[in-house]
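P.,

For your records, the input lines for the assembly:
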Amino acid sequence: MDGKCLHCGAAVEAGDRFCPNCGKAPRRPVPRRRGRHAERARVTSMARAAAWILILAVLFALGGLVMGFMTKSELDPQLRVLRGVSPDTPLLTDDGHTTTAAEQVRLLEFVIVFVFATHFGLAAIYFALWFWARRDPLPPILIALSVLVALKVLTVVVEPALVLSGIVIQVIAFLALLGGLRAALAQRSLARAAAAEAPPPA
Amino acid sequence: MSDASPPPEPPVLAPVCGLCRTPGRPGARFCARCGAALSAVPDREERRRVRLAARAVREQWGEFKGVLWFFLVVMALQIAAKVLLATTRATGPVIDAVLSAGMALAAVGFALRERVSVGAALRRAGLAGANAPYAAGVAAGAFGLAFLYFRLLKSLGAPAISYLEDFREAGWPLWSAFLLTSLMPGIFEEVAFRGFVQGRLARLLGAREALLLSAGLFAVAHLSPAVFPSHFLMGLALGAIRHRTGSLYPGMAAHALWNALVLVEEIVGAGP
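Structure tokens returned:
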């Protein structure tokens, strides 16, 4: 449909997205600018990564509650038995070492504290990273990503049977963090390039 | 003063859009397809600017990916050690030796890809002026805090980790334990984390972020949640020493000394 430009009245042809005379959009008053789309995609990627850091923080906190109380209820019967006998009672551990009832009590109590502490510690780290990511996304996303990978590797090393648990969420989080990292770095490179391009102050 | 000739006026009309290559219409000043101005010269500059920026983004991401690959290689080494332990009859010290050798190879390999900054850090002793007392003070402060943290863990009931037991059981001499758990990590972890990682990130991001991130990666790479805080602290201290002295050697010395102190404490503590 041929017609006239909304802004300058020059003749435009069907399919023209910009007026050949004034460069504005001849029909709708919102001109598109190059680079806008890419920048919006980068901002979205970074926001998505930050959101996943928050999600992981919440998951670690919830996981800490679940795993902590599960471990506690699992070990409590053993602890009751061990506390009932003399502290010096010798025991043989699974890997063939000898220990005493008192030492075993200390160890089991530590295991419970450890499960709570690591999960809540990770939740605290991820909350802090999320807070940091809202100001400056690149460093916290890299740390969140490396901690995620390290935890997976730790599972492979310590408890290979559990390697597939939660894998879907972990893969999605991994990809989101990787995308956010790439976007954050690109954003910085472009900002640096733009600063280098800008004319020096007179 | 004003005898410099004015720059030639760019042609007002261009037959083809410089940006999207759509043929322009006679008399048009803007491209009907992409809206770019049809004056040729500014468009070429704009295209050049966009191309350079895109190349900078690609190059920086490529360098950044090197850091991610390094981290994945370190993780893969840990998994390889686990597989070795599970599938062969290799003893603890053999695994330690394989891990140390793998880490050394990875450190040297990645450092070669960052040879300008790592090389500069290896060509100087870095102890001029107030650097030596600075390095000693930071290292001593970090040792003290890490020691207090280990005391806290112990008071919570954490089981003591024995580094020497495996060596004793396998009949390896004491010096091999110092070589594999003190000297080699001291040298090659410094080359890798303070050399490659910190050097490259400092170039890409800036010194302060490089310090934080290399300390974080250093702590995470040790794959032990219980010692994460102490390793992060140690990573910060060693990174600060590397930044201040501009050399890797003071950090190597501090790192090897700390690992040696852990072994010595085990030897002394095991006595009567």
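Two observations worth noting. Residues 58 and 123 of chain A are 7 Å apart (CA to CA). The two ends of chain A are 49 Å apart (CA to CA).

Regards
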